[in-house]
Design brief:
Length: 689
């Protein structure tokens, strides 16, 4: 017979050795965890008795037995440290087992004895309701070891006992003329309703969603009994259970970092901005009892980052402009999902009739890309003979390994949008699937893996995916940046401050902040002129502040003259003018300066439009991948290759590299659009009749 006590001791020793040698690397944003589980158990009764209480028995000894049963439990865990939690579990379980022994015995008179086999058997029917406090040691976000103490209430404890001559069949007991005696069917005599045991379990979480909130929790648990289930008997119960559960992890959400968008300008001191609100002077209301004093002045900052202290006038000028934005024909997906990213613009079918190319005015490349599905849908409706192919891809890594079903679903969800929202005939859209894209990014880094989780568009008509060309008005400012320099003095800390920029009493720009006032605040004029009227003659500015005692003060209203020169004004005066056209190239392969076919088409377009007298500046960029020195050289090579492609080797080359990221490189599309060359073409035109 198996010695259950020795077996359980060896099992606990083995668990201790294994798990105390595992590295700890646990999830550190888990708030709490709760769930339920059900299991199938092997019950091992460890016993050494002849009879139970006053129930008659002739068995020499019951030395153990085995059985099985089911269990159902609820649990809750509260983390106290990165890798340590306290848990509480309630469990209802069956502890049934059969205890039996066989004895060879002589039956009959002395002169006629026959040897027979006497079988002693107890069928126990025991259920428990357990309360289990435990400590949980997490070895990773998925694997944990739980150790605790189980308080068991035996709410059902019955036994069926009988002694039977199992062979030969013709033997019977003299006292009852039957082959069975000492029959008992009822509650275990002398029951100890409360029992105690040591509890241990090994649990592994299979997460069901990306956020790791929901998971399946298979586990192996063991109980080692410390008390007897009946008085005056040596009868304890050990068990091993195989459980499957479902849990919900309450996880603290990590704040989403603000994207960093850097421009090819000296890095300005940007402070928190908010939508402009009307400025109301408070001079009559100010509390003059405080010593809060403020001062402000303005200087200009040119393209080289140099200040122009003696700022007399700001010149704002309009130019005719052609803006060519390439269209990145990829849609990127989150890991192991096929939902359209919420950063893309999604429309309803009723809104599509208001969409047009004019709605793309004044947008940069990344803002234009956010409308890619609607651009493609609009063009497919304009070009009736064009067909589209959508190829779904996966990263072929981790959860997406060889997952062609996911690739297909990514393509299908995009087709569904175009057919349901833009009413494109489904027969015009072909679906394909593959693992890695045909030209994948490097999977050696997370950025590359992220870029390979995509769907790709292609068409039999190149107009569907051609660059977005916008004829528009470009507004420039000289100087491009207004820098407001501030100073203050106060014996009480500053609570909050505001800087208002006004035109004819109306707020056109507002900055605000909490705490100390920064020594300088930069206003990027060129960026804010896109949708503004330029009929300004002067702008005014004023700084206000409040200290922690709610005393307020403000500076005098100061002003800067503005010389606004519109296209119409230059035409009316018959002056020479110039157009400023901007062309962007993308889809340079990773670590390559070779122009791809789409880039060559843009280069041919530029060649057709530029004159020999045009002034051309070419800016080369790179994304954050790789080392800065290599990216600088790569940007220069891309700019030079572009100059050769438009047959203008006299172009001024500006290799920026990755020193200034022009788009958010935390996004895959931001990195693709950063692998770019921007060509600025300035051409002289005449406004004479």
């Amino acid at each position: 017979m198996l010695n259950n006590g020795v077996f359980m001791k060896k099992l606990y020793l083995l668990l201790f050795i294994i798990f105390t040698n595992l590295p700890i690397n646990a999830q550190d944003n888990l708030i709490s965890k709760f769930g339920f589980e059900f299991g199938y158990g092997i019950n091992m009764h460890n016993s050494e008795f002849s009879n139970v209480g006053i129930i008659p028995s002739c068995c020499p000894i019951y030395d153990g037995g085995n059985g099985n049963g089911f269990s159902l439990g609820l649990f809750y865990e509260l983390p106290l440290a990165k890798s340590f939690s306290l848990g509480l579990k309630t469990e209802y379980a069956s502890l049934d087992a059969v205890l039996e022994n066989d004895e060879l015995k002589l039956f009959g008179d002395d002169g006629n004895k026959v040897q027979g086999n006497l079988n002693y058997r107890i069928d126990s029917k025991i259920n428990k309701l357990a309360l289990i406090p435990y400590a949980s040691i997490r070895f990773s976000s998925k694997l944990s070891l739980n150790l605790g103490f189980s308080l068991d209430y035996l709410n059902k404890a019955d036994m069926n006992q009988r002694e039977k001559i199992s062979s030969p069949d013709n033997l019977v007991f003299k006292d009852n003329n039957s082959n069975t005696r000492n029959i008992y069917d009822g509650e275990i005599d002398g029951l100890n309703a409360l029992n105690y045991s040591i509890y241990a379990s090994i649990k592994y979480d299979f997460f069901l969603d990306k956020s790791q909130n929901y998971c399946l929790t298979p586990s192996i648990s063991a109980n080692y009994g410390l008390s007897d289930i009946a008085k005056n008997t040596n009868w304890s119960i050990n068990s091993i259970r195989f459980n499957v559960g479902f849990a919900y992890n309450l996880i603290e959400e990590e704040p989403i970092p603000e994207p960093k968008k850097e421009l090819y300008l000296p890095k300005p001191n940007i402070v928190k901005q908010k939508p402009a609100t009307p400025f109301k002077p408070k001079s009559a209301e100010l509390k003059r009892i405080s010593d809060l004093k403020l001062d402000i002045s303005a200087v200009g900052v040119n393209d080289n980052g140099l200040e122009t202290p003696d700022l007399q006038v700001v010149r704002i000028e309009e130019f005719l402009s052609t803006n060519v934005q390439p269209l990145l024909s990829y849609i990127f997906f989150d890991e192991n999902t096929y939902d359209i990213p919420n950063r893309l613009e999604i429309m309803s079918s009723s809104e599509t009739n208001q969409f047009g190319i004019n709605s793309l005015k004044n947008l940069d490349a990344l803002e234009t890309y956010k409308k890619i599905l609607n651009i493609i849908g609009w063009r497919l409706n304009q070009i009736k003979d064009a067909d589209l192919t959508i190829t779904g891809c996966n990263s072929d890594e981790n959860l997406e390994k060889s997952n062609l079903s996911l690739s297909e679903k990514r393509a299908e969800i995009l087709k569904s949008y175009l057919t349901n929202v833009w009413s494109i005939n489904p027969d015009r859209i072909k679906i394909q699937k593959r693992n890695l894209p045909e030209k994948p990014s490097s999977s050696a880094h997370n950025d590359g893996i992220q870029e390979n989780r995509r769907a790709e568009f292609s068409s039999n008509n190149e107009r569907i995916l051609e660059p977005v060309i916008i004829e528009d008005t470009l507004r420039t400012a000289n100087p491009p940046i207004l820098r407001f320099k501030t100073s203050f003095s106060s014996s009480v800390p500053i609570k909050e401050w505001r800087l208002f920029v006004l035109h004819e009493g109306q707020t056109i720009k507002e900055f605000e902040g909490k705490g100390s006032i920064p020594p300088q605040i930069d206003w990027l004029l060129t960026k804010d002129l896109t949708n503004s009227s330029i009929n300004w003659k002067k702008v005014e500015y004023v700084l206000t502040a409040k200290d922690n005692d709610n005393n307020e003060n403000e500076t005098d209203l100061k002003s800067i003259n503005v010389n606004a020169v519109s296209i119409q004004k230059k035409r009316d005066e018959g002056k020479k003018d110039k157009s400023i056209d901007k062309y962007s190239l993308i889809l340079f392969d990773f670590n390559s300066a070779e122009l791809t076919a789409p880039n060559k088409k843009i280069a041919n377009l530029i060649k057709q439009k530029i004159s020999s007298e045009a002034d051309i500046n070419i800016y080369g960029y790179a994304d954050r991948s790789g080392i800065a020195q290599r990216n600088q050289q790569l940007a220069e090579d891309r700019a030079k290759a572009s100059a050769n492609a438009i047959s203008r080797p006299d172009s001024k080359i500006h290799p920026i590299g990755s020193s200034q990221l022009i788009y958010d490189n935390n996004l895959p599309e931001g990195r693709f659009y950063s692998r770019t060359v921007t060509i600025i073409v300035e051409s002289t035109i005449s406004n004479k009749e």
